[in-house]
Amino acid sequence: MTGYRPTPPETGWRKRLYTIIFEADTRAGRRFDQLLLIAIVASLLTVMLESVASIRASHGTLLFVLDWAFTLLFTAEYVVRLLCVPRPLRYARSLFGIIDLLSILPLYIGLVVPEGRFLTDIRILRLLRMFRVLNMPRYLDEARELRSAMLASRRKIMVFLFSVVLMVILLGTLMYVVEGEENGFTSIPVSIYWAVVTLTTVGFGDITPKTPLGQMLASVVMILGYGIIAVPTGIVTAEIARSTRVVGQRSATRLCPHCFTEGHDLDARYCKFCSGPLPDPVADEERTEEKPS
Amino acid sequence: MTGYRPTPPETGWRKRLYTIIFEADTRAGRRFDQLLLIAIVASLLTVMLESVASIRASHGTLLFVLDWAFTLLFTAEYVVRLLCVPRPLRYARSLFGIIDLLSILPLYIGLVVPEGRFLTDIRILRLLRMFRVLNMPRYLDEARELRSAMLASRRKIMVFLFSVVLMVILLGTLMYVVEGEENGFTSIPVSIYWAVVTLTTVGFGDITPKTPLGQMLASVVMILGYGIIAVPTGIVTAEIARSTRVVGQRSATRLCPHCFTEGHDLDARYCKFCSGPLPDPVADEERTEEKPS
Amino acid sequence: MTGYRPTPPETGWRKRLYTIIFEADTRAGRRFDQLLLIAIVASLLTVMLESVASIRASHGTLLFVLDWAFTLLFTAEYVVRLLCVPRPLRYARSLFGIIDLLSILPLYIGLVVPEGRFLTDIRILRLLRMFRVLNMPRYLDEARELRSAMLASRRKIMVFLFSVVLMVILLGTLMYVVEGEENGFTSIPVSIYWAVVTLTTVGFGDITPKTPLGQMLASVVMILGYGIIAVPTGIVTAEIARSTRVVGQRSATRLCPHCFTEGHDLDARYCKFCSGPLPDPVADEERTEEKPS
Amino acid sequence: MTGYRPTPPETGWRKRLYTIIFEADTRAGRRFDQLLLIAIVASLLTVMLESVASIRASHGTLLFVLDWAFTLLFTAEYVVRLLCVPRPLRYARSLFGIIDLLSILPLYIGLVVPEGRFLTDIRILRLLRMFRVLNMPRYLDEARELRSAMLASRRKIMVFLFSVVLMVILLGTLMYVVEGEENGFTSIPVSIYWAVVTLTTVGFGDITPKTPLGQMLASVVMILGYGIIAVPTGIVTAEIARSTRVVGQRSATRLCPHCFTEGHDLDARYCKFCSGPLPDPVADEERTEEKPS
């Protein structure tokens, strides 16, 4: 989410272009970003409609032209971005730089591998800019909070996923042995696929146990899956609840004027690091005003 | 939920009608509301039964007559409401006014577009009055608490839903490219539909991956969906837990005037730290009054 | 769960029988209860096996005899219970009394309505006695805690279920109009059944949307269902967390020696009701020892 | 997870082998463990590929040889482990000892019962060593925390599972009576299997209710299943949240010796209330040591 925000070039046409393309604060910049969003959504619709056989039959040529038009437009935009940025290489290697490149490549690849062109849908990731364009800092805050809650619990989630993978391989093999190839469990990988489908409570029904023993085993798998879904939920919930609690009682920005440490409790009277007296905390109302950065 | 409660008209038949139709406190008013509820449920049953082919074949005429009878009844009621209300326009534009109108329109629309008449089922929304009629303020309180917990977390939920939509479009496109039209993934929109079915762990099974690569990708989607369900749950749970904590039995701000400690229980008469007598807590009613509605 | 525990009869054979059948503390009583459990499980297996066509074909007569043997046994037991209990009517109307009666009725009913006999499975409810027999007070404690958490949140859950029913009826009707009878949505009740299958993320796949508009609507239903599952989870979690927390921070048994009120906070120095000084709380280790009652 | 770590033998070749095989701290030991992991994964792939009919047809002999090669390798390893361990019997009966044995047995069993050989997949459990090999103590910590949260709530989960089993048997029997054998509910055990599939929201769709009454009952089952998933989630979440709170960054018992306030942060050096210096908190290691293991 933390896209690349390069230091602006100093003078001339490059600076003007830079301001329009990379900054969202000027009027021209906002308009450019809005036009870009519309172009992205329109190009997404083009690709989607083109994949529908009946529409392709009737409006094929139009969609083909539109598709190339958008791709050439985005290619031009990518080149201009490279030109007006002070350090082009750093932009090219930034998250948004890579997304921008990926979103124009598929159609060119499609010249060689026909089906690859539908991957143009990857340009939906360009919509991530939306948050910046529509000026939604509070949404960014929430996204950041969610992400940090998930980062904080990533180790627990890895342990959980590892156990799920272990279980799924064991259960898949067991079902392969119990049900056998004649009941649709044609190989161990397919049986593992079935175990994933079942343990996650998706339950497509393309493969189902037929023997009594298989159904009994499947019942155990399902109740297991039903029960262990509690684990990731518990992990994430506890993490979100904690982050919410911490934000509640502590003031992330309360600063000690003596040792310049931050994050002092709202009820603290002295700095817990240097024992210097703390100034009174800012009242609640004022703080929320200051919050969005 | 906050229906329109207009100031009553001052005199005459309009006032009498108004009391009966809009107020639930008098005996006539209660009876009217109860009859209305029964009529709504009966009309719902009529519409449902009419949609069953075998019942329509045997009792078609009866149901047709009943259907129109209820609609004419509700139309009459709507007109009377408009007549006896002091400010008809404000009622017509209130939530319940719109629902009342919507619940009589479908049958008239059905005269033009035949299938539209089944939308009469929208009159089920009129049952929302039930809460008022059956005098269940505690249920309204709980509903309000739930709603406020969801409102408080709406930004996090929006961010979550936006990520789900991004994921579903990307995964759908990928599956379209991997599985192709011959395996049921006939177009990108259909593949996106499949991705939704899978990520939400619904798993109809009308479209399923056939190729090994597709099944592998599907397994990832399923485990992903299984894992990220934790996110909305975590968000809402943390919010409900917090609102519960605040509403809970302690008053975070109840202060002892002798030792200036805070957080005394609402039922405490003496400070638990210094044994000094506590002033009466602010009455419950007043406190909820003060809350921003 | 709180079965009927009548005051014992004073003398003679009725008292002896009463002790054996109703009390679990004497050796004969324990043995009786254990034999009863085995008989219940055996009779359940009999009914289940009897329903399997192939087993019924080969061992039909044996299972038939066993079935009647168990039913006559339980009938005799029911009669003896009625005889040796001081107040038979109160036992007959207690929870376990009703279950005991229900578990012998089906076979007799089956003489008239053949299929009714399989309802003998209701005698599985007799296994609820297990908790008492196997002497598992801690499990009873946990069950009680869970039940009280669910009771405390029953109003929120009712509001949630009411919203789900509203949604399901509206969405079902909408899908009936959108998809129509030719796509499997044969009537509004069937469409409502589909909406339940989809919203709860079960997704049988016996009925699936075929039209693009229907699939779009279904996607919304699924994401909705995926999201709102967070609500009951949030409600119950918050409730369980609270009940856990209360037990944690408060000492349910800390008693004021002056006014004999209980439940004082662990950090309280004076009684919050009568301002009398409180003795020091019992240390943590000792308290957990005392806890299991 | 707490594998067997025997006291090392004192001298000679046994000690050298012991160090390489059982210890992960020396360079030779690390290399041995890494090679072992690679061998395990390779042998797993062999078994899986062998189960795919088309691959077995083309590379059958190669896979057969590889399969036996890995099994002989692991057999040799098992024997060496037994030889160089001071107390072989204790190793043989430890968790990892049993897994090591189980992972070589299936192929030998397969000589008698052909299908049994695919159970070689059980050697995936040997991957549990990975945590030790890759030196991931933090992951082990998280795993331990998760496990202890689940252990602490095992009684509640048992009560929940018992209720689910009760419900599933009752609902399955009811559906058998309602739908009957002609609609796919061929016996009570099959109907119970259906009830599990439905209550856990898996919903394969291999068996679905056809009659209106059956669909109504199924709807109730689904909404029930949708609602009660909240229970295990609530249990585990509350438990994780509690364990997190205790482990959290504050020490509820850290006391200021100057003003006798409690609950100071573990990283605080001065009392935040009176600015007096705080004594060093009990070191993290020691505290976890003191916890009952």
Task: Kindly describe this structure.
4 copies of one chain form a homotetramer. The first copy, chain A, is mainly α and 293 residues long. Chain A has 2 domains: 13-135 and 253-286, Voltage-gated potassium channels. Chain C (Four Helix Bundle (Hemerythrin (Met), subunit A)), CATH 1.20.120.350; 151-242, Helix Hairpins. Chain A is built from 13 helices and no strands. The first copy, chain A, has helices spanning 12-22, 27-51, 53-84, 88-93, 95-102, 105-110, 130-133, 137-152, 154-179, 188-199, 212-228, 230-249, 284-290. In chain A, helix 1 crosses helix 2 and helix 8 crosses helix 12 (230-249). Chain A is flat and about 75 Å long. The model of chain A is unreliable at 246-252 and 282-293 (pLDDT under 50). Chains in contact: A-B, A-C, A-D, B-C, B-D, C-D. At the A-B interface, helix 2, helix 8, helix 9, helix 10 and helix 12 of A face helix 9, helix 10, helix 11 and helix 12 of B.
